[in-house]
Known about the structure:
By secondary structure, the chain is mostly helical. It has 17 helices and no strands. It starts with 5 loop residues before the first helix and ends with a helix.
Amino acid sequence: MRKPGLIPLMVSIFTVDLGTSMTAVALPLLLIRDYGTTLAAGLTLAIRLVPSIAVGPIVGRLLARRDPRHIAVISSLLSALFAALIPVCGALWQVQLLTLGIGLTVMLAGPARLVLRPAVVSEGDELRGNGLLMAAQRVSTLSGPPLVGVIIAVGWPLWVAFLLEAATSLVAVVMMLRVPPLPPTADEEAEDSGDRRRFRTAYVTSTRALLRVVSDDAFIRGATLTSFSYLLAVTLGRMMLVVMGTRHYADVSGFYGWMLAAMGVGGLCGSLLIGRFRRISTGTLYIAVMLIEAVGWLSLPWLPGFPAAMAVMFTIGVMESSGYVLYYAEVQIRIPRSVMGYYYAALIPVGDACMFLGSAFGAWLAGASVPAAAMIVAGVMGIPMLLTLRWYYAPPGRIGESDAMREGTRSATRREGHDV
């Protein structure tokens, strides 16, 4: 049964990702127009990932001790301010500073919205609920780039895209306030520490939570480890598509955009359809979608033409979003709320680092050989799945029981100390 906060969270995710996807297109155009294709301009695009990679693990402590809604709301307000200021910047360092600020807000808001999923998705309906949330995300990322194209086509200035991102962030705030509150949990991972040690403790506790989760639950262990190789592979694959557009499909205008559009449409379909396969075990589905996607990336350099490439990218999009829905549903089922914030806070920075590596080396790798790049993408994506097949059929682990036993032990220890 659907909880009342599902639709507001869907709209919040849609509006935030719509604005982000618009800026992802508008910012490179702005930088190239005003500053050229310099290394400094290129670093401005990557600087968004730096906060998550550097200090992302501290978010887990906030999510365990604060209502995630408040974190998401404050982050969206700051993001709206930073986006609105980008068009008035007069120097590249100012754009870089604001981009860094947006990266900080994304670092906070992303895990907060993930942790809120159990508040709006009912127990037993994880697959369908997470599928709807993924669909909202796919529709927004599919709609953002064409909207920027319309802005340019009608002759509006590029800064309109940044103002629209600010507006979508404000809409996300309004919708987030309609999501049911998720009160703080007993922060079982955190330990009391002084101000000087608090920052370091946040790193330690997030890492410890991640290690404890992957050691206690085989499915989450496999999905976590393969998520890192998966993000690396997908980022390499997208850079390969850019090179293919200049070599194999030079006669197709906007080849890369068409490929991402096909992938986005497939992603929307996959997120809506995967919930219909409840009778098939999650492990079987997860293995199947990951391996089919790996085969799709492998086939790209040898396809007969553009229509075939569109069809394969559509299939890849279906598999990609289906895998994400299955993953998020199992996380909601298997990981307690008290640990979930720490888990995501430790997971996302490592994933961003993998994407950073893929962006840095993908074009160089595909430039050397597109077929070799396709084989590497398929191998990085598929081989870890084959090595961890057994883990995806394991029942839910003892994460919650471990937490309960630990809390009982701590309570007993405190009582004994008090008696003494």
